[in-house]
Amino acid sequence: MVVILAGILPAVLLWWYIIWKDTKKEPLSKLLKAVTLGILICLPVAMVEEFVTALFLDEEAGASSFADVVIDAFFVAAVPEEVFKLIALWLVLRKNKYFDEHFDGIVYAVSVGLGFAGLENIMYLLDEGDDWQTVAFMRAFMSVPGHYAFAVLMGYYYSVHHFVDHSMRSAFLTLGAPVLAHGLYDMFLMSTGLDWVIGGIGFVAAIYLCIRVHKIAYRKIHVQLQRDKDEMQTPSVA
Hints:
Elements: H1 2-21, H2 28-40, H3 42-56, H4 66-93, H5 104-128, H6 132-141, H7 143-164, H8 168-190, H9 196-233
Helix pairs in contact: 1-5, 1-6, 2-4, 2-5, 3-4, 4-5, 4-7, 4-8, 5-6, 5-7, 6-7, 7-8, 7-9, 8-9
């Protein structure tokens, strides 16, 4: 029970934060639907990841070269996870009459992302057995907040494409931005298994990337909040 609470708490706190930032609250039923879809996509994501791993990597040897690390980071982890998150987000928003503000895309994307991250975190901790505390600490400050930040990017560009700019660029960035951030983060961390020099550089790079992505996510949140505020203050034309 303690392991489950430790696994889910970081996701719950970040979810509460993004809901708190929303000035016009979304219906709880819609938010829970997004979280539930985020949880449900864990199974197909795991199946795709197993298939890609079997196709391109030696499962027993693991990532033994930098090329293997890139494949593992982007094509085993980042691409499948972010694609399924985007599908879940689309399912939540496609007929959602409450999707009427710029910030809403971020709220729903974060709900999907943290649903996924919460279950993934629990599974990682349960797999660690009695030595779960160190992993819980590291994932609470890096992996779960990482999923949160990737979701902010996805939700930001989803709303931009829906409300502001229907270009191919905004459509591409809806998936491309979180995949790039997620893939680089995983690549830096996975490189720690190659040797101690590359591993040390990769770990520092992962921490730096986390800080940078969170700063970008923070700015994206406030851009969307300001857009909604500006629209509320703009008088409608009869």
